[in-house]
Amino acid sequence: MAGDSRAAANAATVLRTVLEHGPVARSGIAGLCGLSPAAVSRQTTGLLRSGLLRELPGPSDGVGRPRIPLDVHTGAVGGPVAGGLHIGVPASTFSLVDLRGRLLARRAFSHEGRDPVGLSAEIVAELGRFLAAAGPERPLLGVGAALGGWVRPDEGVVVHHPLLRWRQKPLGAELSAALGVPVRIDNHARAVARAEILFGRPEARRSLVHLFIGNVVDAAFGIEGTVHQGPGSAAGDVAHLPVPGSSVPCTCGRTGCLQAAASDRALGAEAVRRGIVPDPSVDLLVDAAATGDPRADRLLRERARAVGRAAALLLDVFNPAVMVVTELSSVLHEGYLEEIRGAATALSHVCDDPERIVSPHAGPAVLPEAAATVLLSRVFRDPFGTL
């Protein structure tokens, strides 16, 4: 690369190095990232001016200039933030996240009783009010939005979200025009994968598979820090991945599909059918299990084992350094994660290490963080171009 492209790549390298190792002095950055001291000096000057980095008080060795450590700017005053919007089926979640992916504020917005035709306009109006109230003293870099279904991030288009009845929806342009800030959108499984690569376990930067189990079932695959999208950004559709041992009928005409066997909608309907909860809500089911209802616990463990058997197939295909599973009960309670691990390792031909299967590093804040990371991952890839 030459010219501006080389400078952009160097700036991204310096920013990510400080994210991973900071606080760190300029002299230490060069050794960590492989750039020359002169290149590091040029890029840190620009990143300091942009507000993405800041100087911290540091000790002096008593000779020459003090070694002033640098860190990403997360200060309560002046530290840049990204807004996040996760659009689920029953509700949306708004968030404000700093440059280390830490959740600063969040709010839920229920979709109950709202017409899908005008839903996005109502969401963006509420999101605008949330952003204005949540962080008026901090620069807003933009907004990241994540949702299920088929999303083309480079075009900002929701190609198809069957549960919200959206087709070819220019969601990115709608949000940007209404909010007046840069907006990036992506599928929520890829968004969580990006958050794991940027802020999570170091192993995720080598390779990861992320399996998302909610009302929508999706997956994402990343290698060497890049999340795969495929032609048309259609990668990750695992709704009809067969679950070994399952005979649950699916709307596609087959049996044992992951969406039909393990989605939140399927689980909620089964919980009502068994008389465990009055409404088809996974939240209610998890609460019932937490208060000691053995029927709720049994059903959640059944789901966890089905998820684990499907995870085994993905482990055998991709053999990632780490597999991240976003599934409500296992995010909240370790016992259900152990069920997933046990079922996966029992069936997998290549993975006999249950510790490779983990919950998201952000825990219950996984979706608010991941949504904002859709924007932040762009900032860390091209700091000056994004700003």
Question: Explain this structure to me?
Answer:
Helices cover 44% and strands 21% of the residues. With 387 residues, it is α/β, with parallel strands linked by helices. It has three domains: 3-72, Winged helix-like DNA-binding domain superfamily/Winged helix DNA-binding domain (Arc Repressor Mutant, subunit A), CATH 1.10.10.10; 81-193 and 367-386, ATPase, nucleotide binding domain (Nucleotidyltransferase, domain 5, 2-Layer Sandwich), CATH 3.30.420.40; 202-360, Nucleotidyltransferase, domain 5 (2-Layer Sandwich), CATH 3.30.420.40. The strands form four sheets. It has a five-stranded mixed beta sheet. Strands 14-13-12-15-16 form a five-stranded mixed beta sheet, with helices on both faces. Helix 4 crosses helix 5, helix 9 (282-290) crosses helix 10 and helix 10 (294-318) crosses helix 12 (334-347). It is globular and about 65 Å long. The mean pLDDT is 93.
Write the layout of secondary structure elements.
Layout: H1 3-21, E1 24-25, H2 26-33, H3 37-50, E2 53-55, E3 69-72, E4 81-87, E5 91-98, E6 103-110, H4 116-134, E7 140-147, E8 150-152, E9 157-161, E10 166-169, H5 171-179, E11 183-187, H6 188-199, E12 207-213, E13 217-223, E14 226-227, H7 258-262, H8 264-273, H9 282-290, H10 294-318, E15 322-327, H11 328-332, H12 334-347, E16 357-358, H13 366-381, H14 383-386
Parallel strand pairs: 4-7, 7-11, 12-15, 15-16
Antiparallel strand pairs: 1-3, 2-3, 4-5, 5-6, 8-9, 9-10, 12-13, 13-14
Helix pairs in contact: 1-2, 1-3, 2-3, 4-5, 6-13, 9-10, 10-12
CATH topology-level fold name of the largest domain? Nucleotidyltransferase, domain 5
Shape: globular
Task: Name the beta content range.
Answer: 15-25%
What count of domains describes the coordinates? 3
Straight-line N-to-C gap: 21 Å
